[in-house]
Description:
mainly alpha, 6 helices, 10% strand
Amino acid sequence: MSDDGHLTGGDPDPFQWDTREGCEVRQILDRVADKWSLLVIALLDRRKLRFTQLRREIDGISQRMLTVTLRQLERDGLVERTVHAVVPPRVEYELTPLGGTLHTTIRSLVTWTEEHQNEIAAARASYDGRAALEDH
Length: 136
């Protein structure tokens, strides 16, 4: 690693963003990697949904948490909120083009998880077995 916090080859130190003041990478990662954000982004893939539809689809999310999550995703430019002038007002949410690019990344993560879930389950069982022996 060089003195300026970079790994050899010019790649930035992966922990450098965590310590620098004013760097928003950590905040963005915290937001987009949040389980509620991931679920909202996944559900909005190539479709518009109303708040009630999202809430019904996301098991365990409170109305307040969904509201906060949608506002944060809208603020970050990942979700677009459209209010239709009808009575009662109809509000729909959809991914922006930027949000759509993030969905592609999320889909890759889900695919990786599905492909390796058995290996992870075996590793967990092995670890839990060792931990149980150490506790005795």
